[in-house]
Design goal:
This protein is α/β, with parallel strands linked by helices. The protein folds into two domains: 6-167, Rossmann fold, CATH 3.40.50; 172-290, N-(1-d-carboxylethyl)-l-norvaline Dehydrogenase, domain 2. Helices cover 48% and strands 13% of the residues. It has helices spanning 14-25, 37-40, 54-57, 71-81, 99-111, 125-130, 144-154, 169-197, 202-209, 217-227, 238-254, 260-277; strands at residues 6-10, 29-33, 49-50, 63-66, 90-93, 115-118, 121-122, 133-138, 155-162. The strands form two sheets. A six-stranded parallel beta sheet has the order 3-2-1-4-5-6, sandwiched between helices. The longest helix has 29 residues, at 169-197. The protein starts with 5 loop residues before the first strand and ends in a 21-residue tail after the last helix.
Length: 298
């Protein structure tokens, strides 16, 4: 297997477009598709072939990389691509999906002669653009020579969780990690909202916890987006975070555990989206603390 591959990127939103550009920078041939073609079109200037259909995009692919909204959308897109899928190609499924969706995608891959890799990524717009995502991967050892150069191009680290992608080990780990991310984001927003309600300067709180076990870089990163009103362009959008929160709640229910914080985070994110913040960074869930009305300013 040559180190220079033909990679089909299906889904070129915030994350997919950045991943496609890093694949191009690494010297790979990229064939890109997005349901809204305008989101994929700018990749042509970087050297990608922008396809009109998923079927066209996967022609001659060594690796098909999906970075779409959720598991059902990823599977539906692959079904549309099915007539042109090259047998023996690898499918790197990077979409954050539900645990129950992975088995269906793995079965589709098996039926179409694809090597399936459950490979969600951890990171947001900045790490995606810098090629410093963390790839969580599960899939057969035979065939990893195809996906390893792809993962190396888009990420700084690949964490292998197993040899059977159908077991969803990577997706399970991704949902656990995202549960922490969403809880920390919600806590940051509520802390700033309470500070506002009690007329406490945010800096007084930051100074209080500085350098101690309660301090964390992620808190400062999200708080600054809110305080400086830098919520667009989103690092990770409210609508997508709401979807992930719902997946986490569902995964907990399937495992027999109740995730009250995740459920509350899902409701806050949905309320923020209803207020008009759906395309802003997930830190905009902060605004959900101020009633059910239209958007308010910090």
């Amino acid at each position: 297997m040559t180190d220079k591959l033909t990679v089909s990127v299906l889904g070129t939103g915030i994350m997919g477009a950045a991943m496609a550009r890093n694949l191009l920078r690494a010297g790979h041939t990229v064939r890109a598709w997005n349901r809204t073609r305008a989101k994929a079109a700018p990749l042509a200037a970087d050297g990608a072939h922008v396809a009109g259909t998923p079927e066209e995009a996967v022609e001659s692919a060594d690796v098909v990389l999906t970075m779409l909204y959720d598991g059902p959308v990823a599977l539906g897109t692959m079904r549309a691509a099915a007539p042109a899928l090259p047998r023996g190609a690898a499918w790197a499924q990077c979409t954050t999906s539900g645990v129950e969706d992975v088995a269906g995608m793995a079965a589709f891959a098996r039926d179409h002669g694809l090597r399936f890799y459950d490979s969600p990524v951890l990171g947001t717009r900045g790490p995606a653009e810098d090629g410093r995502l963390t790839v969580l991967a599960a899939g057969p050892v035979e065939g990893r020579d195809a996906v390893t150069p792809v993962f190396d191009a888009v990420g700084a680290r690949t964490v292998w969780t197993g040899e059977d992608g159908a077991e969803a080990g990577a997706t399970r780990l991704k949902l656990v990690a995202n549960s922490w991310v969403l809880a920390a984001t919600a806590a940051a927003g509520e802390t700033l909202a309470l500070a506002r309600a009690l007329d406490v300067a945010p800096d007084a709180f930051f100074d209080l916890i500085a350098g101690g076990p309660l301090d964390m870089g992620y808190l400062h990163a999200k708080a600054q987006l809110i305080l400086e009103e830098r919520l667009s362009p989103a690092q990770f959008a409210v609508r997508t975070a709401a979807k992930d929160a719902a997946l986490i709640v569902r995964a907990g229910e399937r495992g027999g555990v109740r995730l009250d914080v995740a459920a509350a985070s899902a409701r806050r994110l949905e309320r923020a989206a209803d207020q008009g913040h759906g395309d802003e960074d997930m830190a905009a869930a902060y605004y959900a603390s101020f009633g059910d009305g239209p958007a308010t300013t910090a």
